[in-house]
Amino acid sequence: MTIGLQTFNAIILPQVVNYAQTFFNDPSITKVPLENDGGSGTMGSHWEKAFMPLEFMNAIMESPGIISEFTLTLLRATGWYQIPANAAQVYDWGKDDGPDHFKICPKGREYCEASQKDKYMCSHDH
Question: Which residues of the chain have pLDDT under 70?
């Protein structure tokens, strides 16, 4: 998939796409982008860090990493894993952002605005 001028491999499994549509409140989502940087161990095999920065399965180990319903839905969709319902940790990064989430410069309550640049920090919970 192409976002801006960048190309990403993406997950198209219906279960994952349906979950993303619900989570981001965006029925136009048809794919969920994967990491497009790094070597063979990261590119195309992890969630894109720009869009899911706190997720355990992004390309850079988070501490603490959150194993979200995105990862568990993907694992279930492969048919290789049986994972009980409600096994995911709470993950709300980008929740209900709508069509603004999958953009090269995403907009949403989680992302810093230009006026916050060079401040000590901004966070999804303000």
Answer: 62, 105-126
